[in-house]
Amino acid sequence: MSKRDELLAKLFSLEGKPSVLEGIKVVEISKSNLSGSMVGALLKELGAEVLKIEPPNGDPAKNISPYGVNIGGIGIPYFIENIGKKIIYLDLELEEEREKLKKLLLSCDVVVDAVKPGYLDSIKLGYQYISNENPRIIYVAISPYGHFTRKAEEFFNVPDSDLTAQAYNGYPSIIGDPRIKPIPLRAGIWAAWMMAAINAVIGVLLALYERLRSGKGQFIDVATHDALAITHKFPVLVGFLFGKSRPAYGFLDYIVYPFSIFKAKNGYVSIATPFDTDFRGLLKIIKRWDLEPDWKYGIDRLSDDIDRLAELHKEICKEIAKYSIEELTRRSESLRKGPARLRRLIGGPIIVKAYTLKEVINEKHWYIRNSLLKTSIDNKDIIIPNSPFKMSETPGRITIQKNNQRFYS
Amino acid sequence: MSNYFEYVEKLFKSGEKRSLPLKGIKVIEITHYIYGPCVGMVLAQFGAEVIKIEPPGEGDRRRYRAIWMRMFKKAEPNFLTLNSNKYFITLDTRNIKAREILFKLVEKADVFIENLRAGLTDQMGIGYLHISKVNPRIIYVSCSGYGQYGPLSRAPSFDVSAQGIIGLTMKNGWPDVDEFYKLPDYFGDYFPAMIAVAAILAALYYREKTGKGQYIDISQAESLLRFFYDITYLSITGEEIGKTGNIDPTAIASGIFNTSDGRFVAIAIMDEEQLSAISKAMNTELTNLYKGKLRSKECINELNDLIFQWVSSKTLDEILNYAKTYGFPASPVLTDVEIYKDPWRWERGSILEFNDRIYGKIHIPGSAVHLSATPAKIKWLARPVGYHNRLILKKWLGYTDEEIRILEKEGVIGYWDQVPGPCPPATWNPEDDSVFKGEEDEQER
Q1: Of B230, B275, B358, B441, which sits most exposed with the smallest number of CB within 10 A?
Q2: pLDDT in tens, A80-104
Q3: Looking at chain B, which residue has its C-alpha nearest residue A66?
């Protein structure tokens, strides 16, 4: 460990530090909607107290898990996104239970509404009712099409899923290789729900900060069918500039080539050559200087003519496969550290090993940084990801009570 | 019911508006490409005053990398929006006088953002320890691939490298095809950037209460890892889920299906209530048939086959009508142009027509998060390299025209290279531009 590493590890230690949102009370109302639970979870990591309201027989989200695999009867996503929350079971069809919820809403700081748009309003617990009596309330709604516009009203009865949200964000249209299978392809993680949830969390934090000044809360609206495409911006700009949609592009990229994963002799590497000099560096590493004249400029390597680019890609793949991961990363590293004069002509492409999942969970880096946590539940060892909020004064964190089989009271 | 949606619409369109949450917050960023700039963009759209420092001449290298190399009035269109509302100054941080200016700016700043390779700002003498010495209240944010310390921290990183190093790319693909794909459109930049924004807002809140600044270490890989449930699955079962094509293995049934009118529709049945909803639409009894077997691989495949056959005899509109009537998740797979032309997004304010003082009319994405009392504002698009040098030196630091002239002459500050990307549009005339001359601030549009 270098001196700098030691210093930083100490600076970012977790012991004895406060959390930002201590004393902030969040009420999350969600059903079969993990995007809402992600919002509550991230606020929980920052120190908020989170109460989750569930129907008497529990949230069906408990069963949403890869092939039904569970931890003591609880699915993996639900387990991770509800750690440390207090669960309260209420039958909102009953008047007296509604009253209980109303009491909670009037005394809390943040409401996460992740049920059907308009449902809470229909039982007189929507924003207009709560903010009337509790003007400091920050009310965040997360739903497929939001809580306003004609479309939101038309589709209010359609529940959410990450896959359908990905679809409406246009994501599957640009994943995969249509020459192999001419079908849109989904992202293998909950990309749409993640992006919607973090947008909602940003909204809540903005509103909390603003409330320090104004003393007032507000309504925050996030649509899972919108957040991903709008955050990364490309569909709108492509529509405006080209009037033509991008096809799925497989191994290619729209603004840099190469910018993808390649098969090396003993595994996979990611390669990025953001600049022409980096591409030349790659040619030097794979000893294919003959490709340079035809492909040296970015404009040579970026085109919607996929067949032409496939020629170059075939050559690059062929060469990369001859080298080991270590040879490739070492050579790119030495080019990056070369003399500045040389780097103006030949840069260092970004070549990094692509890990298999089994390698990931054995990589000590993530444990040194407390990013993966090993813990034991029902005498079984499991690994769960920790908070990404690495902050020196107020670190984000998840707290699992060891030897406690009941996580949810 | 309709009253509710109208009520919310009114709240957003004409309810009480207050000044933006980050009004008065000053941010300095030394950022490039997408990851760092996106952080400053969100802060700027919610009212912060953000100064982006670039090297003179070429500027942020993202300026050159347009989609299929198509520029918009000599600028990179994504760069224009990704750096909206910012002030653009140049400083060559190796120059002693330029560093003096940098430290004077930092003294007045609340937040400092950088996304250079981990450890580089320390080597440059502008790391957290250097900056917090002159400004202990600073919130200093380092955005890197794998974090600031630990054995992997010094490896270089781009979006695709961060996706690769946590095994995420290997998830995207067909189980029967020996290929896999990265997540497109720089998810490994945008998502961690949003995590960084949340951390900054939390730190600002804490500082407001305690007066304390802090150091924030955001990693692309760790941000993605946080929601990568396959890790936990592997630790429980000893098996990797791997590529599952369009099947979301957490669902009872799921996929992207072909409709009879040649469209693609995504359907995901997440719980039993939704299963009985689609059963009714399909007019078959699925709930009892598969009781106790739900989410087994065989059951997922059988249900998907049934849905596949059912969808192939229906039009997209028919499927969506069933989804509305019975209540199960179904959405069309949109393309870029369909998203761009979607009336819902325009109505919602997620896409805007914007008229910029320099770049004219352009259609751009707004904010994905809508706040009723303090909505995000886009005030101006990105500017050429060094465009606000004079304005910022005068407004923030009180330099005179003469002092600025000397700094220009000595090459301490500089302007754009005359190439597409860093340079202004061909029609732009410096003589007519009082903002460029530092006589007047940017105006909200």
Answers
A1: B441
A2: 999 999 999 999 999 999 999 999 9
A3: B250
Which residue segment(s) compose the domain that B19 sits in?
Answer: 2-226+352-432
Q: pLDDT digits over A357-382, tens only?
A: 999 999 999 999 999 999 988 888 99
Chain B partners within 8 Å of A372 (Cβ): 225, 231
Confidence of residue A299 (pLDDT cuts 50, 70, 90): confident
Last residue of a domain, one of B268, B299, B333: B333
For chain B, what is the radius of gyration of the CA atoms? 26
Predicted confidence at residue A407, as pLDDT, reads: 42
* B438, part of any domain: no
Helices (H), A243-356: 276-285, 292-295, 298-301, 306-320, 325-336, 340-343
Is A149's CB within 8 Å of B364's CB? no
Task: Please report the domains of chain A, with CATH numbers, ordered by start residue.
Answer: 18-232 (3.40.50.10540), 259-354 (3.30.1540)
**A180, A183, A216 member nearest B373 (Cβ):** A216
Judge whether A204 and A139 are in contact, CB under 8 Å: no
Confidence (pTM): 0.98
Are A156 and B1 a contacting pair at CB < 8 A? Answer: yes
> What's the rounded Cα separation, in Å, for the pair B267 and B298?
18
- The strand ranges marked E within A179-332 are 219-223, 259-264, 267-272
Q: Distance (Å, rounded) from C-alpha A147 to C-alpha B8? A: 7
Domain CATH for B160? 3.40.50.10540
Are A302 and A367 in contact by the 8 Å Cβ rule? The answer is no
Give me the residues of chain B with pLDDT under 70, please. 1-2, 445
Q: Rounded distance, CA B22 to CA B54, Å?
A: 23
